[in-house]
Amino acid sequence: MLAIDQREALRAMLAEHTTGPVSDATVTDFKLAVTRALSPFASAILLDRDFIWDRAIAERAVAPSCALIAAADRFIPSEAEFVADVEIDDAVVPDMVRDQGATALKLLVIWRPDEPAEPRIAMVRRFVTRCRAAGLVSIIEPVARRSRHGGRFDWEAGVIAAARELGALGADLYKAEVPLHGNGAEAAIRIACTALTRAIASPWVVLSSSVEPDKFPRAVALACAEGASGFLAGRAVWQPVIGMADRGAALASAAADRLKRLCEITDRAMVR
């Protein structure tokens, strides 16, 4: 599955390749280009309300064969982070997006070692209930972050702790960070993926943030070998084309080839 729901993070990526400010229209145009070029090769695509949802629906930018996932999270930034907090976006009305073609909703959850678990757990449970009431698949995406006050932080332990805390709350699909960011020995990555499988009660998939694009295929293969069901990722597929002169051609060739390869890896793993 393909993700193109990044917001201010995507604006920052685009800004690295231009001298002027990146407008909302520029962000939307890139998202639409990605959607049109790559949704024919994905089983589902994740879109956000802020920049693309309405345009993608109105312009039928998503391939008919590709299911629709709506991002149901509102990102709250800080001076240091594009996403410092998250809350359920009540402007994303489950019944409405379902009637527009959505089959699932996604919620990002920030996990921090120094913050109480109860608000995160309550938010996930409310999200799952909203999805079930509308007949939609619920997808949660916990990401481990350091304390707001700094200090030492074991990110690897945070990824597993988040799964243990949130992975059995009833969500239909869990979107997990890749252990070790896809770096390191195969055995270490596989051991961490096994820990995720044991902690998560539902099927789970990996995301590609913080993983080098060239290393993501290996990460998907190793995760699937230890219990994952595939990927829901964006950066590893389309980020390398951002700086190219002809983005359209690059999306249709290089990015499409990367997505097809990831799909083939997942398909082979699921057949076993």
TrEMBL record:
Keywords, comma-separated and alphabetical: Lyase
Gene3D superfamilies linked to this entry: Aldolase class I (3.20.20.70)
Keyword Lyase applies: yes
InterPro entries on file: Aldolase_TIM (IPR013785), DeoC/FbaB/LacD_aldolase (IPR002915), LacD_aldolase (IPR050552)
Pfam families: DeoC (PF01791)
Family per record: Belongs to the aldolase LacD family.
The protein, known as: Aldolase
Organism whose genome encodes this protein: Acidiphilium iwatense
Phylogenetic classification of the source organism: Bacteria, Pseudomonadati, Pseudomonadota, Alphaproteobacteria, Acetobacterales
